[in-house]
Write a structure and sequence with these properties.
Layout (H helix, E strand, L loop, with lengths): L4 E8 L6 E4 L3 H12 L7 H7 L4 E4 H4 L8 H5 L6 E10 L4 E10 L7 H21 L35 H12 L3 H8 L3 H15 L4 H14 L2
Antiparallel strand pairs: 1-2, 1-5, 3-4, 4-5
Helix pairs in contact: 6-8, 7-8
Amino acid sequence: MSFDHCVVFGYRGAARPPMLFETFSPAESHVFVALYQEGPYLLDPFHHAAVERKEGFWRMRELAPDRFYASEYFRSYYSQTRLAEEVGFFVPLPGKDAVVLSLMRLKASGPFGTADARLLRDMAPLVIELCRQRWRELPEAENTLAPKNAPPPVNEFDRTHIWESLALTPREVHVVDMVLQGHSTESIARSLGVAPGTVKVHRRNIHQKLGIKSQAELFARFIEIIESRR
């Protein structure tokens, strides 16, 4: 069993995730770490699973929404990684923190085989325990020494607050969040317990309020708002 890259991120809610270990070259690290930390992590299925405190071994295909591989996030960011597959060991830490150790195979290597996945799943208890021994807690946030009355750092906003200034309703915010993650209209409808037609109405209203016509423009607006808060 082989892999091309390994990276370990720590997750603490919506805060910018610290990189704890990597095997990338400087050019690769720019895509896999620096660009990721600028905002795309908020739409990463691994980030969502870590925040939800999943534990054990998971493949990206097991966690990704039904339209993830057709989402603008995938086309605009994830495709730059040129990965055939990403798998991860999810390690909840005390409190609400978590560590994820990701193993990656590039397209030239092909995805992990069935036997590979079975071996990794069997190894999960040992890997998780070793991760807990190595990273008992995450590094302190960069703002630890900031004055008490200083405004909170822009990296710690919850993704559902991104759209607050744009007059979206709470339900519309939920729909926007799920669209950006890569959920289809049907998947969103199941999550909200409404008819697909209702979700389509929400999406039309969102497009009108934001002055956009496509998912590509929605993703661009998402990145624009994040960058404006840096």
